[in-house]
Amino acid sequence: MSTRMRDAGQNAGVAPEFTVDPAMLDAISPSGDRGGIVLGSGLKGEPLTISALRSTPTRIVLVGGLYLARQVALRAMAVGAWVVVATGRPAAWQVLPQAAGNQPNGRPSPLVQIRRLSPVDLPRPSEDAPLLVVTDGGPTPQDLFPPRSPWQTTVYVLPYLHPQAGATANAADLVLMQRLPPGQAELAARIWRLPPQMMKQLTTLKDDQVVALGRNLWRPLRLVTTAKEQQILGPVRRGD
Fold first, then answer.
1. Most buried by CB count within 10 Å: which residue of 8, 26, 148, 173?
2. Is 180 exposed, middle or buried (0-12, 13-18, 19+ CB in 10 A)?
3. Contact at 8 Å (CB) between 174 and 37?
4. Which CATH class is domain 55-230?
């Protein structure tokens, strides 16, 4: 897996630092570690972090509900990323610009853009201003914004696994899966060649549990929500 995942406090895989307005940090309550994004905690309560905003074009697939997708976007905002969401349900994503707040002139923050599911010009990503593009286009998303440049990460939000999403899933650097019903767990096992015990684990995850899957990676984790995130997103849950 090229997207590094590590326990916070270790020296390996340290992500670069980004800058962000202090008001944004106060509004969102950052949960990143030097540019990394804290996904949750391990079995012993240790924070688990990924360097998802990095100098290599990156693909992340989320299989689950809107809660997980919006939390990942909020945490990218908290470490200074531009966030562009292409979606067919823009009302469900308005929590992001609301969290970002307004500029001193009263206009909405340009750091967050909610777009329709059609090609648009994207901000130019850089080391100082990485870009997270969220494609929320259903179980068979169009690849409208594939990551083609350094410091761009594209997240594909899949409400459930679909056979036609196999190519997108296989191209991902990291896959985050919430609980799946048996039929979808069987499909996941075929896509990623999972053994029976892993397939079964996908069907027994609790609402606040996620499996991080990548090359040589299978890591169950528990989602953790800060107090300020809970004000924005509500309690941790499987879906919306």
1. 173
2. buried
3. no
4. alpha beta
> CB–CB of 130/15 below 8 Å?
no
Residues in the chain: 240
* Cα-based distances in Å from 226 to 32, 74, 234: 12, 11, 10
Q: pLDDT tens digits, residue range 38-55?
A: 888 887 888 888 878 888
Alpha-carbon distance of 20 to 22, in angstroms, equals 6
Contact 71, 233 (CB under 8 A): yes
Model pTM? 0.85
Q: Which residues contact 190 (CB under 8 A, 6 or more apart)?
A: none
Which pLDDT belongs to residue 5?
53
Mean residue pLDDT across the chain: 83
Spatial contact of 132 and 93, defined as CB atoms under 8 Å apart: no
